[in-house]
Design a protein that fits this description.
The protein is 43% helix and 10% strand. By secondary structure, the chain is an alpha/beta fold. Strands 2-1-3-4-5 form a five-stranded parallel β-sheet, sandwiched between helices. α4 packs parallel to α9. It binds magnesium ion.
């Protein structure tokens, strides 16, 4: 059974501060008239459906998702620079060369993940058939369950930047590597009892050796 690695998107592979928030707030404002609907909401480890449910108060989503994806794609197009976080490309190169399976475990809708990862050239590096997205549930643990079902019973490692990634990983019996390149504070990540916590992936060989040296 090949090793399987499931990556979170925002704060783990890429970090575009404010991009998703702006697109979603604009979509919500146009649909329901609520200004700055997510101004006080933490996006660390959040899911798209969870974020909107907190504002919807039971109302059906209407065109929120269509609008969101349209604005997100436009904002991504307009970004002057859309590069992966440090070490990400080298890490994916080495893991792929080892024969490992690479997937995504993210709270982003699949179309949103594609918009965020397409421009820096990362989308095609992951196998959608073992990935799970915001479409799979409102809670990250539900999304993780969908990922586990697609990946099978073999060894699984979840790589993320938030406490919620660690909780979701434990929920499906996966090992967890946290990386401190997202919005959460390091002292919060230290309380997650992750199998390993790194500042970023720039020490690529060290991170890779650790990922590949254990079941
Ligand atoms: Mg994240």
């Amino acid at each position: 059974m090949p090793r399987t690695f499931l990556f979170d998107v925002d704060g783990t592979l890429v970090f575009y501060p404010g991009i998703g928030r702006r697109a979603l707030e604009r979509a919500i404002f146009e649909e329901w008239g609520t200004p700055d609907a997510l101004a006080r909401t933490s996006f660390a480890g959040a899911t798209d459906h969870g974020l909107v449910a907190g504002v919807a108060e039971g109302r059906p989503p209407g065109d929120v998702w269509e609008r969101y994806v349209r604005y997100l794609e436009a904002d991504m197009e307009a970004l002057p620079d859309a590069t992966p976080l440090p070490g990400v490309n080298a890490l994916l190169d080495r893991l792929a060369a080892s024969g490992a399976r690479l997937g995504l475990l993210t709270g982003n809708l699949r179309v949103g993940a594609r918009a965020k990862l397409g421009r820096p050239g990362l989308w095609a590096r992951f196998d959608p058939s073992i990935s799970a997205f915001g479409d799979d549930g409102m809670q990250r643990v539900q999304i993780a369950e969908a990922a586990r079902a697609r990946c099978g019973a073999g060894p699984l490692t979840v790589i993320g930047d938030a406490s919620a990634d660690a909780v979701a990983a434990r929920h499906i019996g996966a090992r967890v590597l946290l990386v401190n390149t997202g919005p959460q504070e390091r002292h919060e990540l230290e309380q997650c009892a992750a199998d390993r916590l790194v500042e970023d992936f720039s020490a690529t060989d060290d991170v890779c050796d650790w990922l590949l040296s254990r079941p």
